[in-house]
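ok trying again, last paste got cut off:
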Amino acid sequence: TITPIMEDQVMVFESKYDAKFTLISKSETEILNSLFKKEAKIAVIARNLTKKELNIFEQSKIVPKITKFAIDGIAFVTNKSSNDTLIALKDVIGFMKGERSSKIKGLVFDNPNSSTVSYMNDLAGTNGLAAKDVYTFKTNNEVLKFVSENDGMIGVVGVNWLSQPVASMNSVIDNVNVLNVKGLDREGYYAPSQNNFAEGTYPLLRELYIINCQGSTGLGMGIASFMAGDIGQRIVLKSGLLPYQI
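nice, full thing came through this time. structure:
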């Protein structure tokens, strides 16, 4: 979900220091399993660890160092042919619970194990995705492509893929509308913009964290300090996301 911002962070970090990272993009569930199995020691996820997850580390005598570095958002996108650029969050939640709506033909997610699905399930109070009219692919780009070619579908994607699209996706991005969202407890519709992130008016915000399980001073500490420091925060600012340190 947040691969583009991490590619930028790692590229600049490697150019400044004698360091080399292997960047692997996975779903949230896969990332956490990699940490639990000690297959990876440094990870970035779009939420903090839960008490249950911290207990798993504690049983392995690992104390993760957790650093918040940015505020991200989840965006709803639809085909360019749709004239309606507004959506109420309660309608999306209702659809996830099985309530059918004339406004929504289908919901499209990136991956059933992704942070985006986890976030929306928590919001809706659901344990999984409805079997009917809810679709999942493998990547955010696949979601955007599907929505750009199918009327009435609403894609659920990380804002990072809209603010930093790869060159090959520009034509696809041009063929989708990013919807303004009305929150559950607030009047008015708000776009997933950096300014609305800063003011807290956009209803689908989440925090990004780097989880360091190295247990010693090393690359994990180095990249976390870099991302939370001046240069790393400027990279976040230019990416369209909101730096944690303004």
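cool. The chain is about 40% helix and 20% strand. The radius of gyration is 18 Å.
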